[in-house]
Specification:
By secondary structure, the protein is α/β, with parallel strands linked by helices. It has a domain at 1-164: Alpha-Beta Barrel (TIM Barrel), CATH 3.20.20.30. The chain is built from eleven helices and eleven strands. A hairpin with a 2-residue loop joins strand 5 and strand 6. Helix 2 packs parallel to helix 3 (81-94) and helix 3 (81-94) crosses helix 5 (122-137).
Length: 314
């Protein structure tokens, strides 16, 4: 079995905070030996909004050297595909070939209304955008010839034919689309373990059992020796789960986990290691993306948890 690669999401984030706040976290993650640093995309959500993750990753790229720079769900249906292809290529060049592009469709009706995108078109737009981007990265013409000269993307990504693409999928239709496209599937972090087992099995069936793809799993993680700190985190996460169970979106209500151990890895470092081993054995986990923005603890507790988690990386 290949070594486990562990990535992190930010443990501190505020849309109005200076880029230095994120840069400091990414450089710490790199110094601890973590594989990657992941930013989500979100719109119109107050202080937690992150509408332009590539811009923030560019700032991180300038201050890091080895850690991979990743998006958990870069929303393709609301963007111009060729412009995305250019921006991702520039970031890949800027970082020396360190981009991992997690892509998604989005699900909030308000988002599609704001961008004037019909909700029923999001899957078709997602797939069409991927095709345009991959063709552009491959050096295929992006427009008719002018004066006998082919119009092609420049610069092209450092990684060939393009940076790794992982598909964030939520629900059977999105999962089937990811499998049909032959791309790794990144599950919602709130889906319980047994649903993950079913989903990753269905994804393997859709792709073909002979395909060797990464198996990334996103989980909330807190590995800490102090029982009181673990209890505070567990109580905070259970409150979050209760809120999700009452969400206005039916898909989120349906996916909301009933038991903490179904969707979060909280425990003593040795216990968290055992949980990860279970994911490795059952799901074929290759990449763990650890969500580290945790309720109920101060930053020192989070940083101690990261030290223990770093010891588990391959």
């Amino acid at each position: 079995m290949s070594p486990l690669e562990i990535g992190l999401t930010p443990w501190r984030y505020d849309a109005a905070a200076p880029a230095e706040v994120l840069v400091d976290q990414a450089t710490r993650a790199e110094s601890l030996g973590f594989h990657s640093f992941w930013l989500p995309e979100s719109h119109f959500t107050g202080s937690g909004a992150n509408p332009a993750p590539l811009l923030l990753l560019a700032a991180i790229a300038a201050r890091t050297r080895s850690i991979r720079l990743a998006t958990t769900s870069f929303l393709l249906p609301i963007r111009n595909a060729l412009q995305i292809a250019e921006e991702v290529a520039v970031l890949d060049c800027l970082s020396g070939g360190r981009v991992v592009l997690g892509v998604g469709r989005g699900f909030r009706a308000a988002l599609f209304a704001a961008y004037d995108v019909p909700v029923h078109e999001k899957r078709d737009r997602f797939e069409a955008a991927l095709e345009i981007m991959r063709d552009a990265w491959a050096g295929k013409p992006v427009a008719p010839e002018r004066d006998g000269e082919a119009i092609v993307l420049s610069p092209r990504p450092v990684q060939r034919p393009h940076p790794p693409i992982w598909v964030a999928a939520f629900g059977p239709k999105a999962l089937a689309q990811a499998g049909r496209l032959g791309l790794p599937y990144l599950a919602s972090p709130i889906e319980p373990f047994e649903r993950l087992r079913h989903n990753y099995g269905a994804h393997r069936d859709a792709v073909g059992n002979d395909a060797e793809l990464e198996v990334p799993v996103m989980r909330t993680v807190f590995a800490h020796p102090d029982s009181e700190a673990r209890a505070r985190v567990s109580a905070g996460l259970e409150r979050q789960a209760a809120v999700l169970a009452k969400a206005s979106q039916a898909a989120i209500r349906k996916a909301a986990p009933a038991a903490l151990e179904d969707w979060a890895l909280v425990g003593e470092p040795a216990a968290v290691a055992d949980h990860i081993a279970r994911y490795r054995e059952t799901l074929g986990l290759t990449h763990l993306i650890a969500r580290t923005q945790l309720p109920g603890v101060d930053e020192l507790d989070v940083l101690e948890s990261l030290d223990h988690l770093a010891d588990l990386a391959g």
